[in-house]
Design brief:
disordered N terminus, signal, alpha+beta, DUF4340 domain-containing protein, five-stranded antiparallel beta sheet
Amino acid sequence: MTGLKKKLCMVCLLAAFLTAGCTQNGQEPAPEDEDVMTLPDEEQADEETKEEQKEYSVELSDKLSDFQFSINETVYTLPAKLQEWKNAGWTYEKDNGKKALDPESFLESETLDSEGGSLTADIVNLDGEKKLLGECYVGGVQLESGEDDSRVYQLPGKIRMGISTLDEVTEAYGMPTDQYEEKDNIYLTYEYGIYKQADLVFDVQDEILYKAVLKNYREPEDSNEEVSKETPAEVLSYQAPGAFPEDIMEFVVRYGGDFYKLPAPVSEFTKNGWEILEDGSDSIVKSGRHGYVTLERDGQTLYAVVNNYADLAVPLENSFVISVHGDFDVTKVSVEIYRGITLGMSEETMKALLGDNVYETEELDNGVSYFIYADEAKQNYTRIFVDKDLKLVREIELSNSPDTLSAAAIGTPKEEPDSVDAAAMYGDDDFPSDAGEE
């Protein structure tokens, strides 16, 4: 076949193809489903609209420690009265006007519902009296971005869940208290004292933030609360001891080299060089109530509960620390108690020093806790933890919170005697001077 004939054949085939779909009257037949190529439909258009709607301009704090966040265009702060959430369109099934929550207690992993979907939350009673659930606070939430949730979650510092990276988060919030990797996730923990913590979870592959667990069970400050400008008599009467008494129930501790008798004023700790970290501390403490303080010295941090024994609310410095602890892992502060029991001491020597004091033990996977209780309710105690393998004292904790401060309960001055090292007294030849050092 010549080149001309080939061209003619191609023209004919093309003409046949173009006219094949026409009927004799010139009308085009209905196409088969498999031949149809659809243009973007309404669903696709809706998706594009959704993408445009997923930009919400909200004003949030730059500090994670303020525990603000937004869901779409609504800003929330933890803790907040449950009624505020109800006003924002949320419902809580258990809030039936009958169920109540004990004072200073909480319910975790409760469900709040709205038209946009449900949310996992913690319900907290921050009051000193029993309260109906409807009168309590939302103190914790779990936010998680994903395909099944079209809501937009934003955190302080312009951090957006599902978009912001690990580097962006650490740049906004600083280095976390703890960070580790497990399976498909990277976990960051930011602690701001007791009951105030944020756990942020990232996908290990793209390091994108997709989950945030926020908890702030700290009572909001009342600007109308009357705060005493005078130093309470209880604080003025306190005098630090200079030695260990013969009664372990007096709760005298040598902490970071300084003697305290618990409860001890926060001002005693600051006098000895400890600094109050504002992000993890209350600024005032109500009368007859407890609060929280975060103290730092020489790179070590102490999270402590405080009580206010005065008749009015007081600044944090005039409240009393009721618990201290030290260990070789987290709060690496030297702790010495009754008869010189201290961190790194052998279990055998520690038990010899306890003498006739009655104690209870609790077996754990990594060791044994010795509890010396001061009351039947077991609220006030000394705890000594002994490492299972090393057989050494690895942690010491004291907690003492009497209802009132009598003269006997406030520290009294004592001269420190010429003492002999406890290990030498009891022939503890194997006492390690560097026990627990990493």
